[in-house]
Design goal:
The protein is an alpha/beta fold. Helices cover 20% and strands 30% of the residues. The strands form three sheets. It has a five-stranded mixed β-sheet with strand order 1-8-7-4-3, with no helix packed on it.
């Protein structure tokens, strides 16, 4: 009823699906001009049921710097192309209690344009240096980057973290 009322649909045109399926897995060597941040331990924080991860964070305690990575779809969605037209028509992803209807085909929204753990992904990164006393931003930059998310957290795990009850799953997570 919601989809009909707002003139939305969950199927994608064959042309759009064909384009979305044509992209290969990310090859970082093809992006020498992007800042390589794969050594930073980014993580995503989303609901347990999330399938797409469009943002990730990393906190550099030593330099009091917060990094916020946003998935970069611009490598795949070209202005005025079929994917862009479909995304404009849809405007946003729709989350219903029993299912989701993505703005982009799942081949992109849940894979190449999703900051999944343990894979390289293109992103825009907002780097913000914070004053240790006031926590105000003293310097900031925005740039294209390649990241490698180290871990996917869900909200319940973050609640446990703030309560002091979240333990690392392995030695690599001690660094996160």
């Amino acid at each position: 009823i919601v989809l009909a009322y707002f003139n939305k649909h969950d199927e994608f045109d064959e042309e759009v699906l064909k384009i979305a399926s044509s992209f290969k897995e990310l090859n970082a060597s093809k992006y020498p001009n992007r800042k390589d941040l794969r050594n930073l331990h980014f993580c995503t924080i989303d609901p347990v049921t999330a399938k797409d991860f469009d943002d990730a964070i990393y906190w550099d305690d030593k330099n009091t710097t917060l990094y916020v990575a946003i998935a970069d779809v611009s490598e795949y969605v070209k202005p005025f192309g079929a994917l862009d037209n479909e995304a404009i028509y849809r405007s946003f992803s729709i989350y219903l209690p029993h299912r989701s209807i993505p703005m982009l085909p799942r081949q992109l929204s849940e894979t190449l344009c999703s900051l999944q753990a343990d894979v390289d992904r293109l992103s825009y990164v907002f780097e913000m240096k914070l004053d240790t006393q006031s926590l105000e931003v003293t310097d900031s930059k925005v740039y294209e980057a390649i990241i490698h998310s180290a871990r996917r957290f869900n909200y319940e795990e973050i609640d446990a973290f703030f309560q002091g009850d979240l333990k690392p799953k392995n030695d690599a997570e001690v660094k996160i």
